Structures are given as C-alpha cells and as structure tokens.
Amino acid sequence: MPAPNPTPAIAPQAHDLPRHAKAPLTLWLGLALLGIFHALLWLDLANRDGVVIPWDGFRDDVDGPWGRLGTAARYVAANMTPLCWLAYLLVADGLLTWLARCRRDPAISSLRSRPHRLLFAWLTSIPVWCFFDWVNFTWLDAWRYHGLPEPFAARLVGYFVAFAAIVPGMLLAGQLYQHLGLRRWRVGAGLGGGGGELVPWLGWTLVLGPPGLIVVTIVALYAAGLGPAEPGDWYLATTLGLLVGPPLVLGLALPWRAWRGHVVSLGIGVGFVAWVFYVRQPVANLALWVGLIYLLDPINRCFLGQPSLVADWVAGRLGRTAALFAGGLTCGLLWELWNYWALAKWTYNLPFLGPWETWRYFEMPLPGMLGFLPFAAQCWVILHTLLGVTARLGVRVAEPLPDEKSDVI
User: Fold this and answer.
1) N- to C-terminal Cα distance for the chain?
2) Plot region of 181 (φ>0 → left; ψ -120 to 50 → alpha; else → beta)
3) pTM for this one?
4) Which residues, including other chains, have CB under 8 Å from residue 292's CB and lie 6 or more apart?
5) Please, are residues 367 and 355 in contact by the beta-carbon 8 Å criterion?
6) Cα–Cα distance between 138 and 153 in angstroms, integer?
7) Helix, strand, coil distribution of the chain in percent, nearest 5
8) Closest-CA residue to 163 (of 122, 134, 135)
C-alpha cells in the first residue's frame, strides 16, 4: 500500500506572521558593545579636555589615563574603529536574522547562512583595502594617519580587524537594504528584450553617466585652477581626455547592445585606473572609486561567469546597485563618526575641492561622502572577481548566491 502523500506546505500569509519575533542575541550584544565603546570614548575625551586632533601633536601634553577604567577608556579611544566594526557586524547579523524570523524565512544573514562566503570576504578585504590604502595614503597623499600605535605588532592587529571588516560590513548593510525592499526595484517591464537588450537611452545612461560626470567634474576643477599642481598645467586633464574620451564617444555613437556596453565599460575602466597612477595627485581620487567597477565587471560577466552589475542593468534590475550604494553610504556615515574622536585616526588632504574642503561631515569633506556610494559596489565587483578566479583554478571557497539576480552576499 503506497504511503499517503504528505500535506503540501502552505506559505504563511501576511496575517499569519508573528507580530513580535524574538530578537537574536547578536543584536543585543552588538548594541551593548557599541554603547560601552562610546561611553568609554567619551570618558577618554573628557580626560584629554576634549582635544580631538591631531593626537600626534599633543600626545606628550596630555596626562596619562588614571586607574583601570581610564586605561580601558584610553585603549578604546586608540582602537575605536576596529572595535566598533566588530560590534557593527554583530548588529548587522542580528537585524538580518530578526527580519528573517519576522517573515518566517530561512536565515538571511550571511554570517549564518553563508559563513564561508563571509569568511572569504573577510580575508580578501584585507589585501583589497591595503591596495586602496596604499594608493590614497602613499601614492596620492589624499589621506593622513595620526596616533597609530608605536609597536608595529599592535598596528597589525588593528589592521587585520578593521581592514577585514570593511567589505563584509558594507555588503551586510547592502543585504539589509535588499530585504527591506530594494531587491524588488526594477526599471519597468519590457526594458530587457529577448536578446538581452536594453532601451538605448537607459543603457548608455547607466554605463556612461557616472564616468562622464566625473570627467566633467575633473575638467571643471582644472579650469578653476584647483586640480593640477600648478594652475594652467592642463596636460594632466588632457591625459584623462585621451584615456577616457574615446570609450565615452564610442558609447555615444553606437546603438546599445550588451556586448558593446561591456567593451565601452572596459575601456573606461582601463582609462580611469591608468589616470590614477599617472597623475599621482589627490584629484585622481575621484576616478579611483569607480575605475575598478568599469574595469572588472565586464570581466566577471563575460569571462568568469560571475554576477554582474551590468547584467542587472540589462535586465532592468537596479535594486542590487541601489542597495550597494545605500550600504556604502551607511557604513561611511558610521565610519566617519567613529573616526572623529578616536586617537588612532585618519584625516583627508583634498585641496582640489577648494572652499568645499572646509565643509565637512566630521573629517570628511561633504563632496567626498559621495565616494562611499560606489565604493561598496566596487568592493562587491572585486569580491566576485576573486571568487571567479578561484573557481577557474578549481578551488571552491564559498557558497554560491541563492539568487544571483538580487542577493548581495
């Protein structure tokens, strides 16, 4: 006698969802740690009479911490960024898991459902950020560090924690925005044709708009005498035009096709990255934050078989890009907040902004906050390049995305 068919599972309806799901321990632990770290930071700030920067300049003029509580406060103040990043990851995991419980979904926190992927993002975030750090700090002189611990071993611990948390932190924030509704954001039905084509104005706007705006901004800065080392030194701006101009003109001249968009994107990426290393001035920072997106994203889709932002655009899916932008900006706001009162911190050297350099969100000039928008997307593209390369080498290091059309990590 055959066994009776099992009763099919019924998806929960909106009225069946629990009104109050239990928040996970990681959420409360992360929030508690953030509260403790900020309280200790303010205690140390009071002990140093509210002096903020640069710690290198007044270190010898400030009394040392008093007692165990003062010593703990001084340690937190010197390591505020890495400590808060760890607490933030716990909060992000807690929020994503809480959202999953409220919806009776499988765990959507990557720390729980895709731990190997998060571990790979954690480990590869270190060399990725070391690259950006070297370009901005050493090559372009766009950043300055203050108050770093004297023992190099102590710096390595801070580097490992802070640098490693950057990519997972932004991607978890993007994942949260995805599940709060951005994953459903599409430009409209019928934009993607059967051959993977997109409405021409939309396709070229998405591919050419951001780099075109950056080129116009840089040329305007040069015209104002702010971009080059010496006013009137136009050969650097001319170099940018020679490197990036042909792909932009080609894109404007050609009808939209997905493969043409990839070719143009690759050309723009090569031009931007080459210009960054040719100029060697802080103004090149503008091209740095988008160059690798345009360079690596076509490679991910066409040669490595990885998820791609351009592939999303071809299909009219803008939710993942918007979520990455929102995640990058969210982490940038938090990052600058935690950096400002810390003892080990960074400041910016962006003279090409002119008067705008004095209008700041904590240490970051307000125009510079725009760089956080594409930064998370760039890190996501780099992560998938690394995943694609390891897959080509026959090494499986992380779980695949459950939905390559929408998920972030």
Assistant:
1) 47
2) left
3) 0.88
4) 269, 273, 378, 381, 382
5) no
6) 21
7) 70, 5, 30
8) 122
Alpha carbon separation from 39 to 34, 44, 59, 335 (Å, rounded)? 9, 9, 21, 17
Q: Where are the alpha helices (DSSP H) in 104-234?
A: 110-113, 115-134, 152-179, 200-223
The structure tokens 């990851």 sit at 89
Closest CA to 323 of 331, 314, 333, 315: 331
CA–CA distance, 382 with 398 (Å, rounded to integer) = 15
Q: Using CB atoms within 10 A of its CB, is residue 252 exposed (0-12), middle (13-18) or buried (19+)?
A: exposed
Q: pLDDT by residue (tens digit) across 328-353?
A: 999 999 999 999 999 888 999 998 88
E strand or H helix at 345: strand 345-348
Sequence-ordered list of residues with C-beta below 8 angstroms from that of 221, at least 6 positions apart, any chain: 227, 283, 352
Tokens of 75: 């340690």
- Residue 351 CA to residue 146 CA, distance in Å, equals 19
Q: Residue 242, Cβ neighbours under 10 Å: how many? A: 12
Given a cut of 50, the residues of the chain with pLDDT beneath it are 1-3, 6-17, 189-197
Tens of pLDDT, residues 27-67: 999 999 999 999 999 999 888 877 776 655 555 556 667 78
Which amino acid, residue 364? Answer: M
Q: Cα(393)–Cα(52) distance, rounded to whole angstroms?
A: 49
Computed from CA positions of residues 43, 47, 53, 59, in that sequence, does the dihedral angle turn out positive or negative? negative
Structure tokens at 205: 């706007």
Burial group, residue 316, by CB count within 10 angstroms (0-12, 13-18, 19+):
middle
Both tokens assigned to 37: 């770290």
What is the CB neighbour count within 10 angstroms for residue 36?
14
Can you give the C-alpha Rg of the chain in angstroms?
Answer: 24
DSSP-H helix ranges across 135-199: 152-179
Question: What backbone phi and psi angles, to 5 degrees, belong to 162?
Answer: -70, -50
Among 388, 379, 269, 288, which Cα is nearest to 327's?
Answer: 379
Q: How crowded is the C-beta side of 126, counted as CA atoms within 13 Å?
A: 12
